[in-house]
Specification:
Structural class: alpha+beta
Helix content: 40-55%
Distance between the termini: 24 Å
Radius of gyration: 29 Å
Number of helices: 25
Shape: globular
Number of strands: 19
Bound molecules: adenosine-5'-diphosphate, magnesium ion
């Protein structure tokens, strides 16, 4: 059996890079080749249809069904040039990844034959068989069906023989059953609230867009080694595996050359991603061995989320072509860095102003400060909820560990912005505003130097850091759909801005001038949101104590963190901002708890099997070899000599027994704990029980399994080891 490991390792070692031919065109020429973007719309649609569709995309107006027919016709014509025969509504259910339902273009024709047809109705709305997607009980209580509806803001694209249509997925009674529908509502909410605030500064602003630039981290593992690890195969992470003698301590991977096999994979991935309109920009090594990152240029948030979902499935596919498996799990290996998805977020106006970038004049800086402060207000008020938006059974392993953002949400601003905040907080309005000469207003708000150039002022330990023209939310999990975090963040900021505007308007109504009113409210908000502002080391134990004192959410139990979704102020926020209703929040939490339970349940089962079928048998086989040796020595030497010679082996034999006994006892206890938990009806209580009574076994059993890996002869060990998983590429 152990030969298998050696054969696999040997084969993996010998694999050659799959050489990818570079396209002859330049990237700008094949970029978005498979996307029905505006350029193609213009080419394949009549001028009036084109204009109506642009209006739908830009202004969110409704698509007339007759226009939809025209659009579908144009799309079909374009897609058939690539040999496309099928269409699918592509959506983001509340499970992982994306879902598709394929239909052929063909329909029954009049004369009994088949004709190729793609109607506007098929483009705009479909009813996928929704019963197999989680709905948290919404569909059973209300209406059995769900439907998917085209999101024209995200262009359709071609993959293989299929035309992919990005859609939202909702129940017949209107509840969102996916990630996209609430995100779109959150983006509408922040648009409305931010546009209203922008009018104080520039009446020309009619639309505010949220931008998102994600950075996707991942690991690559040789697929044959992967196949020999039941834990990787079934849970996405290693449940056992002793540290490799060398891992990331040399920090040589980050700057190291990219190995050939990986380089060809990256090249292939980048070409295919560009063809699908994903604006890839950087690919590089990350800190851990075999860990890499890919980041595109930022885009409008809804589109960026779709592109991230598309990229994750593309990564998995392309990796297999190159003999790798792409691990998107947040913590595939213990003891080395996990993977995240930094979400770079900012708001920008239709007039081309990035609202999270400091300006050139004191007036511009005032506007910047409003958006920075109100972001912090939203973050502070809903810090527990923000954490809930990124928390999962898989990401919980990464949060709070030493390489990742801590399990406490705080914001880092840097020295310069912090000083400006202090100045506003500690100065009177008269000190900040003076009326010069002919009633021209002058602001004594310090100039903020151009931060985009100087990025040295960075705090890597902060989960939410200002980085010059945006905030970087670093706690999002690598395999998560970042729509969830973006939905919460944009809604929280929308609420803060709405509230800000109400208070400023009250002061103005009472006769105060606009700037004075803005600064007055700003000062209140800087004070109120102060607890969320932290410039120090987020990994330190002092910060945990300090955060507790400041009243920030310090809960680390995943199922309990989910409770924040059902807090009164959460429900109020989502309902007032018209993003989600209480029923939807409740249903989503049922799914969250259920998913959590199932993940731990699967890990426990897989690890139980590995322990009993792979780890214990190998350990006892090795132990028998030692015992055999002991008895042979006893037969060969004098009693006295034999006792001396056997001392070390006897010690190892005993150690093996201790470890195997612990493992067997605890695997059995884990099974019993599962049985108790499984009998619990409430999804929440069951998840808590799994967290408190099942999950701890995974760590304690692992400790002993890892020890056995060190004791047992290398040749007998069946599971590919960390050094093989992490260093072969
Ligand atoms: P780093 O690794 O230093 O954090 P990268 O350049 O790898 O930075 O990634 C930063 C990401 O942030 C990119 O996707 C980039 O397009 C994006 N970004 C830059 N400016 C903004 C902005 N104003 N709003 C949102 N995202 C932005
Ligand atoms: Mg970054």
């Amino acid at each position: 059996m152990a030969r298998l490991r050696f054969n696999v390792v040997e084969a993996a070692f010998k694999k050659k890079a799959l050489e990818i031919k570079m396209p002859t065109e330049r990237p700008s020429e094949y970029f978005a080749k498979y996307v029905f973007n505006k350029e193609k719309m213009f080419q394949y649609l009549s001028p009036s249809t084109y204009e109506q569709l642009c209006d739908v995309i830009e202004n969110g107006t409704r698509l007339d069904l007759s226009v939809a027919d025209e659009v579908a016709k144009g799309m079909k014509k374009w897609a058939q040039e690539f040999g496309v025969t099928h269409i699918t509504h592509w959506f983001q259910p509340l499970t992982e990844g994306t879902a598709e339902k394929h239909d052929a273009f063909v329909e029954h024709g009049d004369n009994g034959g088949m004709i190729e047809k793609f109607s506007g109705k098929a483009l705009v709305q479909q009813e996928p068989d929704a019963s197999s997607f989680p709905s948290g009980g919404i569909r059973s209580t209300f209406e059995a069906r769900g439907y998917s509806a085209w999101d024209p803001a995200s262009p359709v694209f071609v993959v293989g023989d299929t035309l992919m249509i990005p859609t939202v997925f909702i129940s017949y009674t209107g509840e969102a059953l996916d990630y996209k529908a609430p995100l779109k509502k959150a983006l509408a909410a922040v648009d409305k609230a931010a546009t209203a605030v922008c009018k104080y500064f520039d009446p020309e602003v009619t639309k505010v867009t949220a931008n998102l630039g994600w950075e996707q981290e991942y690991f690559l593992v040789d697929e044959d080694l992967y196949a020999a690890r039941p834990d990787l195969l079934l849970t996405g992470r290693t449940l056992t595996g002793h540290d490799s003698a060398k891992n990331q301590q040399m920090e040589d991977h980050y700057f190291g050359a990219i190995p050939d096999r990986v380089a060809e994979f990256m090249k292939d991935l980048e070409i295919q991603a560009l063809e699908l309109g994903i604006p890839c920009k950087t690919c590089h090594n990350e800190v851990a061995p075999n860990q890499f990152e890919l980041a595109p240029i930022y885009e409008e948030c809804n589109l960026a989320v779709d592109h991230n979902m598309l990229l994750m499935s593309l990564m998995r596919k392309v990796a297999r072509k190159h003999g790798f498996r792409c691990l998107l799990h947040e913590k595939p290996f213990a003891g080395i860095n996990g993977s995240g998805k930094h979400a770079n977020w900012s708001l920008a106006t239709n007039t081309g102003v990035v609202l999270h970038a400091p300006g050139k004049t004191p007036e511009d800086n005032l506007r910047f400060l409003v958006f920075a402060v109100e972001t912090l207000v939203g973050l502070h008020k809903h810090n527990g909820l923000l954490k809930a938006s990124i928390m999962s059974a898989t990401n919980q392993h990464r949060l709070g560990a030493n390489e990742a953002p801590p399990a406490i949400i705080s914001a880092f601003l840097g020295k310069q912005i912090s000083e400006v905040f202090d100045k506003i907080e500690n100065s009177s309005n008269e000190e900040l505003i003076s009326i010069k000469g002919s009633s021209a207003l002058s602001l004594d708000i310090p100039q903020i130097p151009d931060l985009r150039i100087d990025n040295t002022d960075r705090n890597r330990t902060s989960p939410f850091a200002f980085t010059g023209n945006r905030f970087e939310f670093r706690a999002v999990g690598s395999q998560a759909n970042c729509a969830e975090a973006m939905t919460v963040l944009n809604t929280a900021v929308a609420e803060a801005l709405t509230d800000f505007k109400t208070r400023v308007d009250e002061h103005i109504a009472n006769g105060e001038d606009k700037t004075t009113a803005i600064i007055r409210v700003l000062r209140e908000d800087i004070k109120a949101s102060k607890p969320i502002h932290f410039e120090g080391n987020g990994y330190s134990d002092e910060w945990k104590a300090e955060a507790e004192r400041r009243g920030l959410d310090c809960e680390t139990s995943c199922p309990l963190v989910f409770d924040r979704y059902l807090d009164l102020e959460t429900i109020k926020m989502f309902e007032e901002q018209n993003v989600m209703r209480e029923l939807e929040l409740k249903a989503r939490n049922e799914i969250k708890w259920d998913t959590y339970t199932k993940k731990i349940q699967i890990e426990a089962r897989v690890f139980g099997d590995m322990a009993m079928n792979q780890i214990i048998p190998v350990a006892t086989r090795y132990q028998s070899l030692l015992i055999d040796n002991v008895s042979k020595i006893a037969a060969t030497f004098s009693a006295e000599e034999a006792e001396q010679l056997n001392a070390d082996n006897l010690k190892i034999i005993r150690e093996i027994s201790e470890h195997t006994r612990f493992i067997i006892e605890n695997v059995n206890a884990m099974v019993e704990a599962r049985k108790v938990a499984n009998r619990i009806e409430s999804e929440r209580e069951k998840a808590i029980q799994y967290h408190d009574t099942v999950q701890p076994y995974l760590d304690s059993i692992r400790y002993h399994a890892d020890k056995l890996e060190l004791l047992v002869e290398d040749e007998l060990w069946v599971l590919p080891k960390y050094r093989e998983l992490l260093f072969i590429r």
